[in-house]
Amino acid sequence: MAASRVQIPIGYCTNVHAGTDLRSILQNLRQCALPVRQRLGLSSLGVGLWFSESAASEMLAKSALDSFRDELGELGLFPYTINGFPQQDFHQKVVKHRVYEPTWWEPRRLKYTQDLIQLLDSLLPRGVGGSISTLPIAWGGSTPQTCPRDLELSGAAGNLVAIAEDLHRLYETTGRWIRIALEPEPGCVFTDHRSMRAYFERYLTPPAVSERAAEMVRRYLSVCHDVCHAAVMGEDQAKEIRTSRALGIRVGKVQISSAIEVPWSLISRGDRKGVLDQLGQFAEDRYLHQTVLLNEDGERRLIEDLPELLRSIEGGVETLDGCREWRIHFHVPIYIEGWGLIRSTRPEVLALLDLMQHETDLIDTDAQIEVETYAWGVLPAALRASSLDEGIARELDWLRGEMASRAIPPMPRLNG
């Protein structure tokens, strides 16, 4: 089938919006996505859709796809990708570890992803492909006793092979090319590119699977490269993407996002208490904020959640002696460089854009890009925009400007 070339408008991930039913999803798109498009003066705005498990089932059961597609068209919104990582309510009072449920070895995760494939196939224009980012298998466990067992990891691989086969049948039948993009996150089974590669080599490569299954895996399973997550783990993005690609694991999706960086080696003892107080504003109860500690000797240590770390420091700023920096998994607006003595990891976003500019064949031209700052609702007041649509529009405007300055065009979608 001949490939079609469609310019995909860069967009944002709508998991920032609360709402687990179709009525709420459409209301959020009308009240936020439409004003974002209008603020940017665009005729079309990309939206990375998020459907909870119940919303996905509701749309398929009610055959609401046609009216939903028509509504997107009227709003000037282009549904080019889906975030299939959070399967349940992503805006409940406490999410934390619940975002990693169900795991990839559970039938519910397989069924949910199959539903998302059906939705995306129905919503995309003819001849245009798409991507679905997803959970990196499961939370990795904080102790050997809580880590996933080999049987569970093998079961997850079986479900991923089944999804790859589903996607191949879809392509053979309709010509629609959709890829699953597994998203490494600190503390998960795929905590980074390296652990993702290790999993692929052990569970998704012969003799663990057949040659044909391995071929399907390489064709339809990819990585979702989240810049915030890579920054927290201190990854050399160019090196890791190159190494993964050499093993046949391509980047199917890029999430542009920034983390928090605390450069303790540049902060005086007298200022430490004030910085800790400032960090306390980010120690909120809804989301998990994994934190990597880098010491002066180069040792890295992952702490499961920022509030836990701050409690261990209370009244003892001297314990920060010998600490070079912290990097915290908290998605902050990508246009922010820093506040006070705290920085964002925005330079990592710029480094990735530089990589895309100078190594044009490293990330496929059909890899889809979205801004994913889902934490607007839990940001300290000083970092919030006056309205959500203003903040999102400002992020997209900043990204579009940085891409234009590097002559990086909107991503053309090559189907197949």
Low-confidence stretches: 1-6, 412-416
| Overall pLDDT | 93
Shape type: globular
Question: What's the tally of helices?
Answer: 13
Beta fraction of the residues?
15-25%
Distance between the termini: 8 Å
Give the total of beta strands. Answer: 16
How would you describe what is shown here?
This protein has 416 residues and is of the alpha/beta class. It contains 13 helices and 16 strands. Strands 2-3-4-5-6-7-8-15 form an 8-stranded parallel barrel, surrounded by 6 helices. The protein has a 6-stranded antiparallel beta sheet with strand order 11-10-12-9-14-13. It has a two-stranded antiparallel sheet with strand order 1-16. α1 (22-40) runs parallel beside α3 (65-75) and α4 runs parallel beside α5. The longest helix has 25 residues, at 150-174. The termini are close together. The model is unreliable at 1-6 and 412-416 (pLDDT under 50).
Features:
disordered N terminus, alpha/beta, 19% strand, disordered C terminus, 13 helices, globular, six-stranded antiparallel beta sheet, 416 residues
Quick description:
With 416 residues, this protein is α/β, with parallel strands linked by helices. The protein has helices spanning 22-40, 53-61, 65-75, 107-123, 150-174, 193-203, 211-220, 227-232, 237-246, 269-280, 306-313, 346-358, 388-405; strands at residues 5-7, 11-13, 45-49, 77-84, 130-134, 178-182, 221-226, 251-256, 258-262, 291-295, 300-303, 323-332, 338-339, 342-344, 368-371, 412-414.
